[in-house]
Design a protein that fits this description.
The chain is mainly beta and 289 residues long. The protein has 2 domains: 41 residues; 239 residues, Porin (Beta Barrel), CATH 2.40.160. The chain is built from 2 helices and 11 strands; from the N terminus they run αβαββββββββββ.
Length: 289
């Protein structure tokens, strides 16, 4: 083979190789153009430490046991006449409704997976209900009602970070509620009650008088306690969602007095002690500063 043929063959081989490399390089570049861009990374939660504030909405339901008692011997006779066994007999109210409010707090992350803090909240509520008991075939009726208008809590929180973004926490502390509690005792139409005590007291109901024998109410801020827990999930650096359950307990005593005492006398009285178990379920949105 001549030197010219060898040189020509060699040059053709180089040209073919260069063409092949160019084609492969172009294909790889095209593949890069069509390759899907990786998803944008989510900013991790650097720390749970700091102040936060937020809003919440949910529902509440309560069970209230109402126990009756008296130191008035005339009223004790009245209750015994109608088969009311003091203090064993009483009423039970069931209440439910909606609630919503705001919260503010502070967290401190003191270990990689532990968070401690304190939170205060204020709730507007419409949680109400009533209960009653009939005695002696309906000749007498005791009744009690409750309306929770607003309440709030101041609580400590202790949380465990299941992940960097998910905190499981327990909470408990002080609670207060604006309770509107009322109690009454009535007699059926046709029944007449006239009671006179030995210390210038009296009670009149039925017949020519109204059928309500005793009535009383209290609308006051009542202290109590609360405990519960929840989950909070961080949506990046600043926002978080939470779901929470709280149990709260309140006690309030209402004095029910004779609705129509005889002129010049003091009304006979009895007491109704309201022991309220309030259950709260709510979801909230927090912003961390």
């Amino acid at each position: 083979m001549s030197s010219y043929s060898i040189t020509g063959y060699f040059m053709k081989t180089i040209a073919y190789a260069a063409t092949l490399i160019a084609l492969l390089s172009g294909s790889a570049h095209a593949a890069d153009l069509y390759r899907k861009a990786p998803p944008a990374p989510v900013n991790p939660v650097a720390s749970w430490t700091g102040f936060y504030a937020g809003v919440n909405v949910g529902g509440g339901w309560s069970n209230t046991d109402v126990g009756y008692g008296t130191t008035d011997p005339v009223v004790a006779v009245f209750f015994a006449t109608f088969g009311v066994d003091l203090p064993a007999n009483g009423d039970r109210t069931g209440s439910s409704g909606v609630l919503g409010g705001v919260q503010i707090g502070y967290n401190y992350q003191f270990r990689p997976t532990w968070v401690a803090g304190v939170e205060a909240d204020f709730q507007f509520a419409s949680i109400n209900g009533s209960g009653s008991t009939s005695y002696v075939g309906g000749l007498a009726l005791s009744s009690a009602s409750q309306d929770i208008q607003h309440f709030g809590t101041v609580r400590a929180r202790l949380g465990y970070l299941a992940t960097d973004s998910l905190m499981v926490y327990a909470t408990g502390g002080f609670a207060y509620a604006q309770l509107n509690n009322a109690a009454a005792m009535t007699v059926a139409p046709g029944a007449t009650v006239n009671l006179i005590g030995g210390v210038g007291t009296s009670t009149n109901c039925g017949g020519a008088f109204p059928n309500t024998c005793f009535i009383g109410s209290s609308n006051s801020l009542t202290p109590g306690w609360t405990a519960g827990g929840g989950l909070e999930y961080a949506l990046g650096q600043n926002w978080s969602l939470k779901g929470e359950y709280l149990y709260a307990h309140f006690e309030q005593t209402v004095t029910a007095a004779a609705a129509t005492p005889t002129a010049g006398t003091l009304p006979n009285t009895y007491t109704a002690k309201f022991a309220t178990d309030l259950h709260i379920a709510r979801v909230g949105l927090n912003y961390r500063f």
